[in-house]
# Entry
Amino acid sequence: MTGQILLDPLIPLPMIYALAGLALLGLALAIWRRLAGWVLRTLAALVLLAAIANPSLQSEERAALSDIVIAVVDESASQRIADRPEQIQAALDNLRAEVATRANTELRVVALGDGEGDRGTQLMTALSEALAEEPRNRVAGMVLITDGRAHDITNAPLDLPAPLHALLTGQADDWDRRLVVRNAPSFAILGEPVTLTLRIEDQGAAPDAGLVDLTIAVDGGEPMEFEVPVNEDIELPVDIPHGGMNVLQFATPEAEGELTDRNNASVVQINGVRDRLRVLLVSGEPHPGERTWRNLLKSDSAVDLVHFTILRPPEKQDGVPVNELSLIAFPTRELFLEKVDEFDLIIFDRYQRRGILPSAYLDNVSNYVREGGAVLIAAGPDYASADSLYRSPLGAVLPGAPTAGVYEQGFRPTLTELGERHPVTEGLTDFATAAENEDGTPGWGRWFRHIEVTPTPGATTVMNGVNNQPLLMLERVGEGRVALMASDHAWLWNRGFEGGGPQLELLRRLAHWMMKEPELEEEALWVEPTGQTMRIIRRTLGEDVGPVTITHPDGTETVVELDRINPGRFETRWEAPEIGLYRLTDDDEEAVIALGPAAPREFEETIASVEVLAPVIDRVNGGAPRLSEGLPDLREVRAGRPASGNGWIGITPRGAYRTADISVSPILPAWAFLLIAAALIVGGWLREGRR
# Structure
């Protein structure tokens, strides 16, 4: 219960001041005349002035409010390594016990997890939000149980109402090793090396390491091993192996005694872009489809096309001297011996042996395929003749052997059961310009020539023609790939005959498959991330696939089943619990994907330190003891005094209260003031009369 005196004057204050002045003047006159009752008369004047001021007594009934101690507990990823979880629990239990022993004191605990995305530890944001929910005049102290690695220090509150302390987890002799990719482009041109800058650095009380192991794997393949120095930038030239997305994984093994291996790996995703697609098109003779091939290839500005048409074969004898011909001589030696490996794709369009290309040259093309080249045969009647390319050294790598049969009749190409699942022809029926025909064939235009061939044992037939005979065959030979189109009437699709067909799409897919683009691989497992959601895609030529095992950044595993979307294509969506590096495997395929960085911001610096928090803590005289050196006691300190010492941290009692009731009553009734004043005046008169 507390009270105070309130004044509610009966007349304006200036008039009261004037009356007080008259009273002082009368007092001075009485003293000058030496009147014996001047004291009583003065008291009477004061009583009258007090009555006019109308004093009242205001009484308050107060309820004491408890002091609040705010504890922000950092439970981010970096706080889940080594023995830090046990340290956090011990510190929190000790703080609860210390607060429980103090009367009228409460503890508010705020748990802080990983920041959304890769924002790191939002420690100051959590503290600000906790302060916003509590009355500032009740906050006696704030405690952060953390490793000190706050990533939002610029959001620190400017005006803290009480001492702030940080209880540091970790050990004084902690050390950690991390792998950093300092610069990595998002795309690179095939055939041109790109330079990455790597660094393996040790933090904390690390032992002398010298050289350490570094492994580099491309697309989850067999890792290459190197030895590199620690704490030095390493310039690493990398040749992108294929077009499309290339996933490069760098890793250094976990060292004995380091805090975590979560930052020992990094993944770089580089999109391989072909500067130019160099194509050699050799047409054995002029025919309607020749111009179509040329137009299709030239329509893509990224294609460098070298096209030769044999207009005058050696056996042609018309008596015209060679030096008078305006035709360009076929540079066979230059193209097929000296520069054959400079082409990405070689197309033989209705070509037959006429003595222009010796067997040694064609044998060189065969070796070109085995070493990683690509050859496409667009076959006409030439392929079924005695001068067929199959009856040359190139035949050893071709996927189909001619039987000498030629079908001269209308037919519509169809997809084989395997072709419906193969990436080159999967979904080609969606490009039909007309509805499905009565016989169940796609709504494509007809072709009118089909060369009968027998597929080789390693060939994959994806399209059929007349009487379900093989029409389009694909085969892998050594490091290269070969395709055989057993018809020279594909140009009818381009001309729109009977509605045409997807010749451009088919050629594009064929070229990409032969260029080994990952999205056209028959057996493939890949991931398309959106935030922390994975779209897991598995392509196969088989009828079914097994489950996919997902290895989390912390080593735990999750097994997910895939759903069949289309023939040969299986998918599912999976929400990842955290950012980091994930590895996906099934029985045959493997893929790696980084959601956010492979080593999140939480693991960029894992050694506990108060360096970042020190400026904020020092402003309010707080402290930052290490939990490894003992749990601190809790003491009360006055505002503005040092709030930490050896083995203790301090809070400032606030003494906050809530007013429960207020009452106002006059000090004396009016008649009492008048009675007292009259008594004093009479007393003064009597005192003076007696004198």
Residues 13-33 form the longest helix (21 residues). The chain has a mean pLDDT of 85. The domain at 277-307+345-514 is CATH 3.40.50.880 (Rossmann fold).
